[in-house]
Amino acid sequence: MAFIKLDQKKLQHNYKHLQHLFQSRNIEWGVVSKILCGNKLFLNEIINLGVKEIHDSRISNLKTIKEIASDVQTVYIKPPAKRSIAKIVKYADVSFNTEIDTIIMLSEEAGKQNKIHKIVIMIEMGDLREGVMGEDLIHFYGQIINLPHIEIRGIGTNLNCLSGVMPNQDKLIQLSLYKQLIEAKFNISIPWVSGGTSVAIPLMLKNARPMAVNHFRVGEALFFANDLFTGQTIEGMESEVFKLYAEIIEITEKPDIPSGDLGENVAGNTFESNENHDLGTSSLRAILDIGLLDMQPQYLEPHDENITMIDASSDMLVLDITNSEKKYKIGDVISFKIRYMGALYLLNSDYIEKIIA
């Protein structure tokens, strides 16, 4: 069985590094745990770091977090579905919202559960995913400000997740101005301006963050230390908290070009020859015990730089190991660097073993 390994020391190092960065700037922050897909082993590692606030987009994951540590503040980070209202109020202390009708339902359900449910109003800032349009914000706020059992914890925005719009100082200043506008209009104070995700950390490090932006939600930077502006590792952090390992189950010299009438494979792709595929050429191929059911090859990179990915089927991954300096044998394990989406696939698979190093 293939397995994914979490490096405990690297995770701890990254958490302490981020904690220092945020505390020194008086920024509150929470860990986005959705990449862990509710895995109790890994969630325990997060909670053991001393995390007081965890964000997720799956109610079942928030339920698991509450079962492990009921005192952790849980945040549901997408607009709630009508059918999920009762569970969201039960397992999420805070939810991100964009619809008045949904907030009314949250208010009614919180009353039934004898709770105060906190909400963050998400504002559209150009990425075109969730968010109230800026011109509608004052009216929107006025409709919900006096709802019982609801506490408006703050405003926020999401960037880079759908259209790839990057955060910049102008957009975060605009978010800060929305805070000022609402506070002046309704004579209230907004605790959170949640404009920060992993992609905004480089702006913070360059002191390009408006001071009003005082709340971050961080997942990718914690686990991968990615500077999403440069593609490099954030200085002082560790990039490989996760590694994938898969076992070789076959090694055979085979032709480079398939024989027979060609159609689509299981993934809907057809074989295309290139200049390196000449009739009569062959390569030493290794088959690993992992496939498309568990991962997507484009998000994996072998640590052995002389290995080339060929293709994958539902349960097997084929590699060209011809040029490797290592003499692989059956039963050997090949390790891979993993990108964020690659880890999401792997951690969501019940067929991939999860291990802590």
TrEMBL record:
Looking at the keywords, is Signal present?
no
Gene Ontology cellular-component annotations: cytosol
CDD domains named in the record: PLPDE_III_AR_like_1 (cd06815)
Residue intervals of the Alanine racemase N-terminal domain: 7-226
The cofactors it requires, by name, are: pyridoxal 5'-phosphate
Question: What would be an example GO MF term here?
Answer: alanine racemase activity
Query: Which keywords appear in this protein's UniProt record, sorted alphabetically?
Result: Isomerase, Pyridoxal phosphate
Q: Does the keyword Hydrolase apply?
A: no
Q: Which PANTHER family match?
A: ALANINE RACEMASE, LYSINE RACEMASE
The protein here is known as: Alanine/ornithine racemase family PLP-dependent enzyme
